[in-house]
Amino acid sequence: AEPAQRQPRALPPGLRLRAAQRPDLPHIALLDRQATGADRSTLLAAVLGAGNSVVAWRGDRPAGYAMARTSGRGTVVGPVVANSAQDAIALIANRFAHASGFMRIDVPAGATALTSWLDDIGLPCVDSVTTMLRGEPPTVGTEQHVFGLASQALG
Questions:
Q1: What is the per-residue pLDDT across 130-154, written as a single tens digit (0 to 9) for each?
Q2: In this structure, are residues 88 and 80 in contact, taking their beta carbons and an 8 Å threshold?
Q3: Is 68 in contact with 58 (CB distance < 8 Å)?
């Protein structure tokens, strides 16, 4: 769908956004590992190289990221990692403001504030998926959370 709202949003207090570059990859990979419990640095490097991404900072600390890339009929946003729904919305809104046409984001279950905002701007939920894993779930931190999947197959 094409979101109705493409203008940048006011950022949460203390949050700065800037375009992500290859030297940001260790910071992005650390945030991602805290949120997923997995080392996805190879995946993140590939997505970073294939599209455009943004990193959020609070002071001198990385606070989240959002990646976007061309796929099929338009732009896919994801993965997205942040410490709050408010920060995730700012990151995603930034990616939407820098894209045109069809937009897609795969949102994990439980991200109700994000899905409500997406619905409000014209991106309603059209499907849901079940996360499956083999063995024990990975240990994840409590500071960072996944708000946008890399893809349904990759999480």
A1: 777 788 888 888 889 999 998 765 5
A2: yes
A3: no
Secondary structure letter of residue 121 according to DSSP: T
> Which of helix, strand or coil describes residue 103?
strand
**Contact (Cβ atoms closer than 8 angstroms) between residue 85 and residue 111:** yes
Residue with tokens 């896919």: 76
In DSSP terms, 69 is beta-bridged to 76
Phi-psi region of 78 (alpha: psi -120 to 50; beta: other; left: phi over 0): left
Q: Which residue has the tokens 């949120």?
A: 35
Report which DSSP code applies to 54: E
The reported pTM is: 0.90
Could you report the per-residue pLDDT of 34-86, keeping only the tens digit for each? 999 999 999 999 999 999 999 999 999 999 999 999 888 889 999 999 999 99
Q: How far apart are CA 52 and CA 95, in angstroms?
A: 8
Contact criterion met (CB below 8 Å) for 48 and 67: yes
Report the distance separating Cα 14 and Cα 84, nearest Å. 13
